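B., you asked whether I could sanity-check this one before it goes into the benchmark set. Here's the sequence:
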Amino acid sequence: MDKHNDGILATKENAPAVVSGQARAKDTDSNSTRKTIAGTADEAVIQAYQRGEWLTDWEAHQKHGCSRFRTLMSELRQRGWLFYDEWVEGENRYKNPARWKRYKLLKQGV
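And here's what the prediction gave me:
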């Protein structure tokens, strides 16, 4: 080993070529994981509706990890799903009056 390359620091010359391939694989895996997580979260929300649960945007996010609740609701409605919705009044985290909607499945679509 020469005095400049003691095995601690990698240089262009001694760095393994696999590193860039591993980085690409990691990026690909994280993208597929995101899709899987979104699909799983959507399925969890759908299953909650099928069990007769009421859900708000916040509950869908907290309980089921669904960060795209409004998009999911829109997609389900386009597929013929019918929901009953109602306004709920309460306080926000700053103790100010607030209102939001909660939803319950009436009829499952295709």
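One thing to flag: Helices lie at 18-50, 57-64, 69-78. Otherwise nothing jumped out at me.
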